Amino acid sequence: MTPEPAGIVVVGASLAGLRGAEALRRRGYAGPLTLVGAEPHRPYDRPPLSKHVLVGELEADATRLPELAPLHARWRLGSPAIALDRSARALRLADGTALAYDKLLIATGAEARAWPAETGGRLSGVFTLRGRDDAAALRAAVQARPRRVLVVGGGLIGCETASCLRDLGLAVTLVDPHSTPLAAALGTFVGGVVAECLRDVGAEFRPGTMVRAFEGDAAGRVARARLSDGGTIETDLVIAALGATRATGWLQGAGLRADPGGVTCDAACRVLDADGAPCPDIYAAGDVARWPIPLYGNRLVSVEHWGNAVEQAGHAARNMVAPPDDQRPYQHMPAFWSSQFGINIKLAGLTAGADALAVVQGTRASRRFLAVYGRNGRSIAALSFDQARWLPAYAQAITAGSAFPPIVDATDQPRIETAAPGFPPPRAAAPAPSRSETVHA
User: Fold this and answer.
1) Helix axis angle, 156-167 to 188-200, nearest 10°
2) Given CB 3.0 to 4.6 Å as the disulfide criterion, which of 60, 85, 178, 381 pairs with 136?
3) Is the separation of the CB atoms in 44 and 63 below 8 Å?
4) Dist CA 31 CA 26 (whole Å)
5) What cofactor requirement does the entry state (predicted)?
6) Domains of the chain: residue spans and CATH
């Protein structure tokens, strides 16, 4: 099939893809622009899906993102990219369409890690929550008032959904292999606060619990979870909150540094080829991008956060229209927020590798506090539980490379409480990333 006219093609029609396309137009790019999306929907906002949509405050189709600049773009929705031919400077869509490009922005994001089909993943009543259609289907299932909802995974999505489901008065059990929720992201010292919140709202929390398989009834609907210790949990609705993998399968064979952990870029957001050289015509942004972050020793990270998707897409667009000798490095302080159990949680920085923690405002017991994470005597992240007023000052201190803890003489600061963060050791069965890490929102 003859390729369509070239120009800039944005693969991924979600937040990063949309904001990147808008930035291209604002930067003066007036040529052909095409946005390719795997889903049939125009770009929409994902954070409300696990909160407002789940509880019925917002319809799934009311989450469409505002378009902030005239795009004058061709939209190719509902047919994902399945292959990239760099020598021909073209990509192929699932419907057989070939799209030529002069420059390419990869913003395909991430995909929910599904429960394996061979251990019950295809049973009716087993859900993941990533996209708009997922949220609409899960909302319909919740409206049927299941007897017990089982949430597998105590990350942000698992905790947010458990909180919302308890607000609806549903019986909820959350299982996680660690001793507390959010242990991998925030450590067990902070995760213990979330465990208390779960129990206070009447959810059952089962720490140190692994699900081996789901079993169904005669109609093919999930009926119970079989556990690694031989026990079972009766349930008629399951939310598998197992994290995400980057949507990079379509890049197999393209000669790029891409795998389920992301697409590796240089500091200017240019994608690296298999030999480690930056491709001058291919950029990446958002959840799918993995890049060196100077603030943390140029460690490769992929950041699954709303703010990063917007900022990185804009920066990539800037470099796409800039001359080769003006490719500026992307500077970003990773940050995320989450609302659960009536608490607003915000994090600035990366907690990975932290060896110390200090509660520098409020108290852990009150569930209103600000904690700082340290590594080798330096402050690397700050976390707020309903204490966001102080967060900008600590984020600034982290950017400056301040000692741990960075602020010790604030006028309303109580006695500083120090503790071990309590990060669990890497699980032996999990593949160890070679040089990168993923930060989830």
Assistant:
1) 20
2) 60
3) yes
4) 12
5) FAD
6) 8-111+245-326 (3.50.50.60), 117-242 (3.50.50.60), 335-419 (3.30.390.30)
pLDDT digits (tens, 9 = 90+) for 69-79: 999 999 999 99
CA-closest candidate to residue 296, choices 246, 354, 347: 354
Predicted structure pTM score: 0.93
Distance, CA of 289 to CA of 295 (rounded, Å): 17
Rounded Cα distance, 150 and 173, in Å: 5
Asked if residues 95 and 264 have their Cβ atoms less than 8 Å apart, the reply is no
Q: What are the residue ranges in the chain where pLDDT is below 50?
A: 1, 428-441
Q: What residue type is assigned to position 279 of the chain?
A: C
The residue assigned the tokens 């340290």 is 374
Query: How long is the chain?
Result: 441
- Max alpha carbon distance in the chain (Å)? 70
pLDDT value, residue 439: 45
Nearest 5°: the CA angle 155, 159, 160 is: 115
Tokens 């140190």 -> residue: 208
